[in-house]
Amino acid sequence: MQKAERHPSLPCWKFPRWLAALAVLLLALLPIRGWASDFDTANQAYDQGKFADAKAGYEKVIESGAGSANVYYNLGNTEFRLDDAGHAILSYERALALTPRHPEALANLRLLREKNGSRLLPVSWNSRLAHLLTTNIWTVLVAVSGWIVLFGLVIIFTSRQADHFGLWLLTLLSVVVCAVASVSLWSMTRDQALAVITAKETEARLAPAESAGVAEALPAGSQVRVLSERGEWIYCELPGLGRGWVPEGALQHVRPVKS
């Protein structure tokens, strides 16, 4: 019987782990370099007074998935320079949706609303509270405080130790935090229906037709809350506490924000 020939084994080259990790890191950084370059280009266009180019640049950054509060803030400034108050106010609102205490966006939004005569929906106390923090932070607070309550009650009712005063206090405090955070998240969910009038000036109608009577005049930047849709018309809660139909192309939702 003929024996199988033995061939000398060739050394197998292994891809170093550090090199693989470096490759993954570089691939992850490629999109960041791309949108950072677009952001810088848009900033340069703004500084040179090329506001249409700057607007296109900021929108490109947002479409790439890198929309931050500062990008929306810069976009709002550009739209203001282009005399587009409605979209500028929308961009400032979106900046604040990502960073509720953004000082420059707050200041510019207040000034532009006053200048334009934009009408606002009444703000409830829970909505004011909700906008102190972001959705992610409220979600974390609900989760953490909920787990503290759960484990606190388990320990209190299963432990033989008599004195649980400190643990009771922590559990009750966590219940309060969980309740406040839950209400805030509910308020933010309701704000998903918030929209801004982006047209120069719009009239809300009593029925979904141009021939219907006027329910309320809405300058650019006015807030409405979307209730339902019918064809090319949106049924909204209006700043004057009434309700009316607004043309679909005259408004845009503030949330969800591309980020």
UniProtKB/TrEMBL annotation:
PROSITE patterns: TPR. The chain crosses the membrane at residues 137-158, 165-186. TPR repeats lie at residues 69-102. The keyword Transit peptide does not apply. InterPro entries: TPR-like_helical_dom_sf, TPR_rpt. Keywords: Membrane, TPR repeat, Transmembrane, Transmembrane helix. This is Tetratricopeptide TPR_2 repeat protein. It comes from Chthoniobacter flavus Ellin428.
